Amino acid sequence: MTLAALVTLASGALGCTEVHAQDVPGIEICTVEKTWERRTSCLQSNVDFLQKTITKLVTDHQQKLDAANRQIESLKSASATLQKRVDDLLAAQKKMDEDLKKKADVPAKDAAPAAKEGGK
Known about the structure:
This protein is mainly α. Helices cover 82% and strands 0% of the residues. The N and C termini lie far apart (121 Å). 0% of the residues are buried.
């Protein structure tokens, strides 16, 4: 097919579909309305849109805050667990150091009397 045929086919296919106007929610310019009833309705529509938007944003942000708070609590718990493990390891290391010191001191004390007896 040639380029002209493709353009004609595409424009024909697009021309067959009927496009309907949609009321897209959003802020409207209400000053163009001539009657007070229509202007009031327009302003009320803007207020409704803004209230729905604010409500949606509040809900979204509250969900994010709740998720962040859950994550913070989880991290606090993990931190407490790790701190306990570190404390346990430090206590075990201190005990092991004391045991090694005691074992090192015991032979030195036993060796001293033996040396005195050998010198007599």
